[in-house]
Write a structure and sequence with these properties.
This protein is mainly alpha-helical. Helix content is 77%, strand content 0%. The chain contains eleven helices and no strands. The two termini are 25 Å apart.
Length: 295
């Protein structure tokens, strides 16, 4: 459902380009980000249910990271070339197609018969209402869900305060302060201007594609290297890896701050994204290996 929705939302960029509307561009981006933000916890949450053993879980999370990295590499190469040769509109149409292809594969190729931890089902008795038959939420159902959500939030907060590793849940969000600014700085380095002051869109598009390819390479190499010195059975090695990743992030940005050419920027970006990948994978593993499955 999220893939189908995201495919339709991406087409909104074509309308924004045609209308030269920056507010519409922002609106589409908000919707697209909302889909992505919903997709992430689902895909991350299902992995430890399918792969419970810590070492296997470490491999599974790393492989998931590799899938993202390889697609970033290929996407950067393809998008940069296509945007330079046939324009942005075609890139968004291809983006639409990839979302719908993913939806088709998930619907017809993946079956929801995963063997996960069984939960007890409480049987209820009483009169069945029309709303329940139609699958619509009743007032009592909504009230119970709200009350249950508040109770879960209280239990989760207490769990994080007392578990001993609760601060680690903020690692990924705090690291986002570091790598999030890349979306602002990257276009500044990638944009090339002609002598008359106009933008050379072809070269700029190629530079953007090269930059995202380097991001994918960094996120692929970093976790792979750190996996050699980490062990999911020993969580302190994962925490140590996160500290190493923050070191890569910091030194990479320091290098970028002194860059004067685009190749120098790419080198600093690769070093920085090695840290991004390390933090992303290992902070996820810390939560998945230490937290109760229900949490």
């Amino acid at each position: 459902i999220l893939d189908v929705m995201a495919g339709f939302i991406v087409l909104g960029y074509l309308i924004a380009i045609q209308q030269h509307s920056l507010p519409l561009f922002y609106a589409v981006t908000i919707l697209r980000s909302a889909c992505d933000a919903t997709y992430f916890p689902i895909t991350v949450g299902i992995v430890p249910l399918l792969v419970p053993e810590p070492r296997d879980l470490q491999c599974a999370v790393t492989m998931n990271s590799w899938a993202w990295s390889v697609m970033a590499i290929l996407g950067g190469v393809i998008a940069g070339s296509l945007a330079a040769s046939i324009g942005l509109n075609t890139c968004y149409l291809i983006d639409f197609g990839t979302f719908w292809l993913s939806a088709v594969v998930l619907y017809f190729g993946v079956y929801g018969n995963f063997k996960v931890k069984a939960h007890s089902v409480q049987q209820t008795s009483g009169t069945v209402t029309t709303e329940q038959i139609a699958g619509l939420p009743t007032a009592n159902t909504v009230a119970r869900k709200i009350k249950s959500s508040i109770q879960v939030f209280k239990e989760l907060s207490m769990y994080l305060v007392t578990c001993g590793f609760g601060l680690m849940v903020f690692l990924k969000s705090s690291a986002s302060f570091v790598w999030g600014i890349e979306d602002i700085i990257l276009p500044e380095f990638a944009t090339v201007f002609n002598e008359d002051g106009t933008e050379d869109e072809e070269v700029s598009s190629m530079h953007m594609g090269e930059a995202f390819t380097v991001v994918g390479i960094g996120c692929l190499v970093g976790p792979a290297l750190v996996n050699l010195i980490t062990d999911a059975h020993r969580p302190y090695t994962l925490q140590r890896a996160c500290l190493i990743g923050v070191g890569f992030l910091t030194s990479g940005w320091l290098f970028i701050s002194q860059a004067h050419t685009f190749p120098q920027f790419l080198a600093g970006t690769m070093w920085r994204t090695m840290g991004s990948g390390i933090v992303w994978v290992n902070s996820t593993l810390v939560l998945q290996t230490l937290a109760d499955k229900e949490i």
